[in-house]
Amino acid sequence: MAPDVDQTYRYLRPSEVRFGQGRTDVVLATSGGSTPRGRSEHPVFFDGFLGHSEQTAAALLSVAKVARTRFYTPPGMLAAILRAADPVVTSNGDRLRFESFSACCGVYARLDVLPGALDGPALDTGTTNVDFNPPMRAALARVGGIDPLHLAVGEDVVVTTLDGSVTEKKVSLPERWLKGFAEVQLAASRMRPVAEVSAAEARRFVRALPPGTGSRTRPMWAVPTGRALRLTTRPSADGAGVSGPERLRPLEPLLRFARSLRAYAPPYDPSAPAAASLWELVLDDARLVLALSPDASRGFSGEGGVLWDLSDEQAALDAELLSVLLAFEPRIDISRLAAGADIAEQRVSSALGHLGAAGRVGYDTAEQAFFHRELPFDAARLEAMHPRLRAARALVDAGAVRVAGDTAYVTSADTEHVVGRHPEGSRCSCPWYGKHKTGRGPCKHLLAVELARRAAE
């Protein structure tokens, strides 16, 4: 098992919420961010008023709550006491995005504060962590009424303590947490809308979800029925996977502000017993997004969907080229990037998948487009966290792959596995493929054959 990643947040001072003078001030301290000019210890992204103050405060608390929640605890394991990772905030110029990931790696949350809620453009663009300490969360819970909400993401004045020290928080991030944060972006990019219901139906659906603790193993599906949604255990091409339906509970505090609820799902695969899904609660000038892994006991980190993109050396080179053209856009224009880099749009799409695996782009299903952000973690480490890809490269280096037309043979642990090309995709004779097919990404033998074919071209 890979060691945890030690993440240290260094804040000039704790975040706080101040009440008075007919308004509420939320000051978010920043740590270790990226800007178009490079790294910044304490970036300043926004200083202005937000609309819908009570809604915004409740949405921020929901994102922070996901980061502090373990929705699934393996049998026989005591609930882990983890210091939650602080949410990530990205300023895309005309909007702010707050992201978090659950401790169990199965739930991703994002709050998009859209242009209509901001009283003006951001001061700067980039990504950083923001301090969400207990006193600040308790104060946010008191925000209500119609008092204006002033938000500062970072401060444009030098804040120092008497002894010149900074506020530090340390957390050990599991490697699977980092992998999951990157993996969910690719999963989202492959989803399509399957349902949209009214605010009234959203309230009925979420409040009627069965209770649970993440121990339920039987997959469930939410399917549209007229203007409503209902849960069933029968897989449906028209529905969205919602195993562990209690994982949608973070939406509940925001239902009173909801305009509608949208559900997204990947193309239906009858061979897959469960599927990931994404849920967008549409608010006034904002959206709260929750993405659920295919099963409550199975986080996004093991899905392996990014492996095809990571194994593509051309995509890696293209990603390096495109990275210098990105400027924290709220919506990445593939055609513009293709023209700017003088490469085909298909290569841009593959490169964006590679950048997503490194945490350098996210995906917005409402916009049907990637957006630029830089997770405040080591991108090189993110790209190296995939043992199947390392094993595939080792097989190729050892000469264990023999390609003969549409059939290939891979010798691994004294066993020869057969990889065949078929109209619906490649197949492998190994037990791992027999169990998962490609529902959790390719096996190491499929990857090894793909690497060998590319090397021979």
From TrEMBL:
The keyword Metal-binding applies. PROSITE patterns: ZF_SWIM (PS50966). It comes from the Bacteria. Residues 409-454 form the SWIM-type domain. Keywords: Metal-binding, Zinc, Zinc-finger. InterPro entries: Znf_SWIM (IPR007527). This is SWIM zinc finger domain-containing protein.
